[in-house]
Specification:
This protein is mainly α and 210 residues long. Helices cover 45% and strands 10% of the residues. It has ten helices and four strands; from the N terminus they run αααααββαααββαα. The strands form two sheets. Strands 1-4 form a two-stranded parallel ribbon. Helix 3 crosses helix 4. The longest helix is centred in the N-terminal third of the chain and has 29 residues. It binds fe (iii) ion. The site of fe (iii) ion has 7 residues, from loops.
Length: 210
């Protein structure tokens, strides 16, 4: 076993916890206590909303408070805990900052390590073999397939998460967002921009008669 494998939390084959969860889920569905739609809805809300909203609040704070940004880059785990986010799968979170010349993205080549306290549960494509293998070999092509066309001169850095260290991307603050306050910036910060397969959303230009 390589050191990387030894570090990982998801042993293959499937863990006891995972099998137990699946057995429980089928039992509850069989007894008519819950529907698989309801379970899907809960998972979706963790994947798409509740989890990434925490990360978005961290990013919006970093964009508006230079001292917080400094603390966040120096010690991600502690700075994230300042906002009350910690716990499972978050014992060490390292923040990697996108700049005009460097673009960062995260992957877990071996399984699905992901910073749960800030991003929630990983999307299914993050766990796919294709993303895990191709993101390290041909990141520029993969990012292009996500719709992110980076200039040739932009350096791409891909960070391989493990059970010990999980990464989150601090996206660049988008153009046209100078007039927005911390709360107004939050909706621009998508889950994908914190994984590094997208940029933060560029807001509509400000209405000139406002
Ligand atoms: Fe992993």
């Amino acid at each position: 076993m390589s050191p990387h494998e030894a570090n990982h939390h998801s042993p293959h084959p499937e863990s006891y916890e995972s099998l137990r969860t699946k057995a429980l889920e089928s039992l509850l569905i069989e007894k008519g206590l819950i529907s698989s739609d309801a379970i899907d809805a809960v998972i979706e809300s963790y994947q798409e909303h509740i989890g990434p909203l925490n990360g978005a609040k961290v990013v919006a704070r970093a964009w508006t408070d230079p001292l917080y940004r400094k603390r966040l880059l120096a010690n991600g785990t502690d700075a994230i805990a300042e906002l009350g986010y910690m716990g499972l799968e978050g014992s060490e979170i390292v923040i990697v900052e996108n700049t005009a010349t460097t673009h960062n993205a995260i992957v877990c080549t071996l399984c699905s390590c992901y910073p749960w306290p800030v991003l929630g549960l990983p999307p299914s494509w993050y766990k796919s073999n294709a993303y895990r293998s191709r993101m390290v070999l041909e990141p520029r092509d993969v990012l292009q397939e996500f719709g992110l066309d980076l200039p040739e001169e932009t350096e791409i850095r891909v960070w391989d998460s493990t059970a010990a260290i999980r990464y989150m991307v601090l996206p660049e603050r988008p153009p046209n967002s100078e007039h927005l306050n911390e709360a107004e910036l939050i909706p621009l910060i998508t889950r994908d921009s914190m994984i590094g397969v997208a940029k933060a959303t560029v807001p509509e230009p400000r209405n000139s008669n406002e």
